[in-house]
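Q: What would this complex look like in 3D?
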Amino acid sequence: MSTAKSASKPAVRADDGKAKAWLSRYRQSLRYALYVITHPFDGFWDLIHEKKGSIAAANTFLILFLLIRVLKLIATNFQFISAPIQHINVFEEMGSLLLPFIVLCVANWAMTTLFEGKGRFKDIYMGMCYALVPYILIQLPMILVSNMLTYEEGSFYSVLLAFSVIWCFFLVFVGLMEIHDYGPGKTFIFLIVTVVGACVILFLMLVFFSLLSDAVAFFVSFYREIVFRLN
Amino acid sequence: MKKTISFLLAFLLLIPAAGAFADDSASLKEDGFSTSYTYNYDYWGDVQMSPDPYRVETIIDSMTLGLENLDGKLITKPQSIFIRNNDVYLADSGNNRILQIRYKDGEATLTRVISEITGTEPAGFNNPTDIFADEKNNIYIADQNNNRVVMVDKDLNFIREFVKPDDATFNQASAFLPSKIAVDVAGRVYVLAVNVNKGFMKYENDATFTGYIGANAVKVNMADYIWKRYFMSKEQRAASESFVPTEYENMYMDEKGFIYATTTVFKEYELLSDSAKPIRRLNGIGNDILIKNDRYPPIGDLDWKSESLQYGPSKLADITAMKNEIYVAVDRMRGRLFGYDSQGVMLWAFGTKGSQDGTFNRAIALDHMGYDLFVVDEMKNSITVFTPTEYGQMIYDATDAYLSGDYTASDELWQQVMKLNANYPLAFRGIGRSLLRQEKYEEAMDYFERAHAREEYGRAFKQYRKYWVEKNIWWVFLVIGLLLIVPLILGRIKRTKWEVIMHEHSKVRK
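A: Here is my prediction, written as C-alpha cells for the whole assembly.
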C-alpha cells in the first residue's frame, strides 16, 4: 500500500536528486518494519528478496535499541528498575548488548553458510535488526508509563515488557527461517548451534587478546631491559 | 586471567579507560576504611561512612576491678557475659570462676567471685563457659569440663544439675560438654553443647531432657545423593560421612522468650541468598521467625572482598537483643558490631581490630544493659562498655516513638538523625512515613525515593496521582481531545493536498 503510494509520488522520479531518492527509500524501509513485525512470514521474505529493507534502517533500529536500553535504565521509575546510576557506564551498557548481537550474527552467518543457508551476512544483520522493532515500540512508551504506575500495578508493566521480548524472539526465529529458507526444526537447531558458535568465537577472541597482551608485555619488558642496559 | 578478560572487554567495547568509572573503594585503605570505622550499607551494598552510634564509656578489666590486690589471679580467657539488671556476670573461664560485677553510671565494682558452690561434688568449676541468672537471682552455670549445667540459688547453694541425658537421641559414647545456656521464664533450660548438631538441647525445669529444638534443616545435595545412593556400596556408604546439619555458635534469650542464635557454619555463597541464615530467631518449636524486610539479609558485612588477611564473611560470635527487638551481633573475625532493627534493617556497624579502646583483638561475647553494650574480648581479657552517642540514641528514640505510635515525635527525631547523617535510608523512610500521614504526598515520595522504599513510594504516589488527576482533569480532557482532533485535521489537509496534486497531474497529462 505504502509502496504504491510512494511509487507514484513525484519524489521517486528519475530526474530528482539522488539524496532525495535515498531519503524516500530510507523512509519506506523504516515504515516497512511495521509490516514485518505484524506479518513476519511475508515480511521477512520480502525484506530480503524484494529488497524492501535497507541497511540504513537496520542501523537505525539497532542504535535506537541501544539508546532505549540505556534510557530505560535511567528514566524508568525506581519502583520497577533500580539501576545504580552512579555505577552505570553508558558505553559499557551499550557495548554489552552490541558485542553479543554482532557476535551472534557472525556466528549464525558462519554456521548457516556451511549448511545451505540462503542468507548473506547483510541479510542476517538486517533481519535481526528489524526483529528488534517491537522492543523499541513497546519499551519506549513503557518508560513513560512506568512513571505513572504504582508498585502494586507493576504486573501490568512487567507483562508488557515480557510481551515485547517474546515478540522479538519470535521475530528472530521467523526471520532466520525466512532468510535462510529453513524449516522450523532446522532453524531451531541452528539457533542452538549459533549460540555454541558464538561461544567459540568469544573463546578465540579471549585467547587472541590474551596472547596479544602477553606479546605486548614481552616487547615492553624487552625494551625496558635494553634501555636499562644501555644506560 | 581476570586482567586479560578486562583488557579484552575494554578493548572491544572501546571503553576509554578503566579509570573512567572511578571506583571509590580504590582510594580506601586495605581494610576498606580511610578515616572512620563506623559505617552502614546503602541500597547498593556500598559502604557509607556514618557518625559513631556508640562511644567507649569505660573498660572493665583486672586492673579496674582490683583483682591484682585481691588474689593476684587476673582475668584469663573470658568466654561469656550475662547481664541481669545491674549485675554483670563474667565467665572467667581460664580461672574456673565467675565474676559478679555491679555496674552503675560508668562505675564497675566487683561484688563477688564465684568459684565454689555448696551442696554438690565437685564444688569447683572446670572451664565454666556460660552463665545465666534468672529473675530470682538463681544462677545457672555451664560447667563444661565437669559435664554439667548447675543451678544454684543466690547464696550459691546447689539446687539441681542438668547432665548428659539418658536418651537414645544423644550419642552416649560422647561426652556432654555444655558451652552456652539460656533459661526461659518457666525455668526450661536450653543448652548448646559441643558436638551436638541437632540444635539446642532442651531440659524441663525438673532437669528432665525433652529433646532438641532449632535443628538446622538437613541439606542434601542432589548430586551427592545420587552418587551415594546408586554408585556406592553399602560399606562405602556407611564409611562415608553422613549429611550433618550445622552447629550453632551462640544464643541469647530475649525478653519474650525467643532464642536468638548465631551460626558460623555455612558456605559463603549462601549468605546473600539468605539460605545460610547466620542470625536466627527461634520460636518455641524451633522455627526461624526472624523478620527480614531489607534488601539484604542480616549477615554482618556484605562486602568482604578486601585484600587484607582477614578475608571472609563475618563470623558472628554472639548476639543480644535489646528493647524493640533491636539486636546486635558481634563479628569475632574483624571485631565489628552490627545493629539491626526489628525489620532486619542494619542500623549501624562499627568496630575493628586493634589495641585502642573500642577496638578488639578477639571479641567473643556481648550483652546489653539498657542501650549500653558490653563486649568481652578474650585476648584483651576485658569488657568494653559502649554507651550510645547522641546520634545512636536518636535512632533508638525515633524507632521507639514510631513503634509506640507517636509519629510526630518520630518525625522530628528522624529529621535530627538526617541532619547528622544524610546517608541514612532509615531516616528518609521515617520522615517519608510521617509526611505520608500528614498527606504531603509529593514530599513523601521524594523521601521514599531516597530511601528506595518502593512499596511505600507506590502508596504515596497513588494518592498523589489521584490528587493530580482531580486537579488537572480539564487539562487531561483537553490533551486527549487534541490528540483525537489534530490527526483528523491533518488527515483532512493531506487528503485535500493529494487531490490537488492529482488534479494538476491530470492537467499535465492532458
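A: To summarize the key features: The first helix of chain B runs from residue 2 to 12. Chain B has eleven helices and 25 strands.
Q: Very helpful, thank you.
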